[in-house]
């Protein structure tokens, strides 16, 4: 029976049987349709119904978060690259400040706010936990679901929490294009039954702070929680944004990165690793072990086996490397041919993995490019060819600084809930939030790292 390795979409990647090993080449012509194709209400949008709510499916089978998590966990480069992106985006945390002006170079002049509780809040586990989980879902799935928790009378926000995006689905937009509800359930992608889901109101993405203010003035915040969706709008999908790495998945690079190690594992498991072919004539055994010297056939077999073991032990192993072997043979005087001659030939190993490793490195680089990480920063640069790169310290430092600079928009996105939290509770509107960064420097600058604020 053939052993076939399929990808998540049912495309065969490897096939092996008792006497063959095969692999697909290229990228399948028919890729699965986009996991997110949000359309206005009343169109052919994939939908499902839960109670009285019409849900916009997340993917064709409403299972994209589950599939995405499985894909990421199978590909080390993708998993580590996303984690690296999360870490440099978060930097060394946030701090509150007031911008008092600018110096002659245009750099911000910062002063600390008088309210010391803001610094305590910025360094609290609540904020750290919220940001870590929000950027996780933002990078892995393309969207994060942030929950605002209110006090008993609804006058103050007392907590900000990230709901695991795997368990969130959005309702279909109304006639005005507004997404009003978020349905949270651990049953997804299966439809939850009554009592197995929680419904939250979704804040207006255009101005969530003003939306919260209107709800407070209408006495609608008491005993309730609200959800704010944070996303990168680059994919143009209004329900569930596609993550950056999805382009590499559609192109087939994620499958290739997963397929090459599976192919090599199968090849190594099934390959024959003979090193030498030693040919010994039958006449040798008749002279070396004459039949009349052994009382039984079994005794003669045992003697021959012991002799072969001694030959193998004498030739194999580290201690016997480059060791010569002496054999003796006769020349037949009638025809001039050698008789009873041992023949020792090296066996050529046909398994050449160099091309597979180059393909794997190319796939790793393409995945890194898709998530905007220079492969050299992760030590993934190749020594030659189209994907060659300089892995020197300067190149790594510069690539890291480019990553930090590009993180500005994502950082502002995950800071929006913090700003809403602060302003809703009556905080000083002049207070702004900034990130701390550790920047690698050269040794001739006097230190190995320096602290910067952004």
What does this structure look like?
By secondary structure, the chain is an alpha+beta fold. It folds into 2 domains: 31-245 and 371-453, no CATH class; 274-346, no CATH class. The protein has 12 helices and 19 strands. Helix 2 packs across helix 4 (125-140). The longest helix has 19 residues, at 297-315. The protein is elongated and about 115 Å long.
Give me some keywords for this one.
alpha+beta; 12 helices; 2 domains; 454 residues; 4-stranded antiparallel beta sheet
Secondary structure elements and pairings:
Elements: E1 3-6, E2 12-16, E3 21-23, E4 47-50, E5 53-56, H1 64-74, H2 76-90, E6 94-102, E7 108-111, H3 117-122, H4 125-140, E8 143-150, E9 157-163, E10 168-170, E11 181-184, E12 198-202, H5 208-217, E13 225-231, H6 246-251, H7 253-270, E14 276-279, H8 282-288, H9 297-315, E15 330-331, E16 338-339, E17 343-346, H10 354-370, H11 393-406, H12 408-424, E18 431-440, E19 449-453
Helix pairs in contact: 2-4, 4-12, 7-10
- What is the rounded distance between the termini? 60 Å
Total beta-strand segments: 19
Instruction: Give the rounded overall mean pLDDT.
Output: 80
Largest sheet: 6 strands, mixed
Report the C-alpha radius of gyration, rounded.
33 Å
The SS-based structural class is alpha+beta
Number of helices: 12
The portion of residues assigned to helices is: 25-40%
Uncertain stretches: 17-42
The geometry reads as: elongated
Provide the domain count.
2
The strand line-up of the biggest sheet is 9-8-13-12-11-10
Share of β-strand residues: 15-25%
């Amino acid at each position: 029976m053939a052993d076939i390795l399929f990808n998540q979409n049912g495309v065969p990647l490897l096939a092996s049987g008792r006497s063959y090993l095969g692999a697909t080449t290229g990228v399948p012509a028919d890729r699965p349709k986009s996991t997110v194709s949000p359309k206005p209400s009343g169109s052919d949008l994939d939908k499902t119904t839960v109670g009285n709510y019409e849900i916009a499916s997340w993917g064709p089978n409403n299972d994209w978060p589950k599939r995405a998590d499985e894909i990421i966990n199978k590909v080390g480069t993708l998993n580590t690259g996303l984690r690296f992106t999360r870490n440099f985006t978060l930097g060394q945390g946030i701090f509150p400040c007031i911008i008092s002006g600018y110096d002659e170079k245009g750099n911000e002049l910062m002063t600390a706010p008088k309210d010391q509780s803001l610094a305590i809040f910025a360094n609290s586990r609540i904020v750290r936990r919220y940001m870590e989980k929000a950027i996780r879902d933002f990078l892995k799935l393309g969207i994060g679901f942030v929950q605002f928790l209110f006090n008993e009378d609804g006058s103050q926000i007392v907590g900000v929490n990230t709901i695991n995006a795997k368990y969130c689905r959005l309702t279909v937009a109304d006639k005005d294009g507004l997404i009003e509800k978020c349905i949270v359930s651990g049953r997804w992608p299966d439809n939850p039954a009554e009592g197995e889901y929680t419904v939250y109101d979704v804040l207006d993405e255009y101005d969530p702070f003003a939306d919260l203010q209107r709800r407070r003035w209408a006495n609608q915040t008491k005993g309730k929680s609200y959800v704010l969706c944070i996303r990168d709008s680059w994919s143009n999908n209004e329900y569930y944004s596609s993550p950056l790495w999805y382009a590499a998945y559609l192109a087939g690079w994620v499958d290739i990165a997963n397929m090459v190690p599976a192919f090599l594992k199968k090849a190594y498991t099934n390959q024959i690793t003979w090193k030498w072919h030693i040919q010994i004539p039958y006449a040798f055994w008749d002279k070396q072990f004459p039949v009349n010297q052994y009382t039984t056939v079994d005794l003669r077999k045992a003697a021959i086996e012991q002799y072969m073991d001694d030959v193998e032990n004498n030739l194999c192993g580290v201690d016997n490397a480059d060791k010569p072997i002496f054999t003796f043979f006769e020349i037949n005087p009638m025809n001039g041919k050698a008789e009873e001659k041992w023949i020792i030939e090296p066996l050529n190993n046909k398994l050449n993995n160099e091309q597979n490793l180059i393909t794997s490195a190319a796939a790793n680089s393409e995945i890194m490019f898709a998530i905007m990480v220079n492969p050299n920063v992760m030590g993934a640069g190749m020594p030659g060819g189209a994907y060659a790169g300089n892995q020197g310290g300067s190149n790594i430092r510069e690539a890291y600084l480019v990553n930090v600079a590009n993180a500005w928009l994502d950082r502002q996105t995950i800071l929006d809930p913090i700003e809403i939290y602060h302003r809703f509770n009556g905080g000083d509107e002049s207070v702004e939030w900034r990130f701390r960064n550790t920047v690698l420097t050269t040794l001739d600058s006097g230190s190995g790292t320096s602290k910067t604020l952004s």
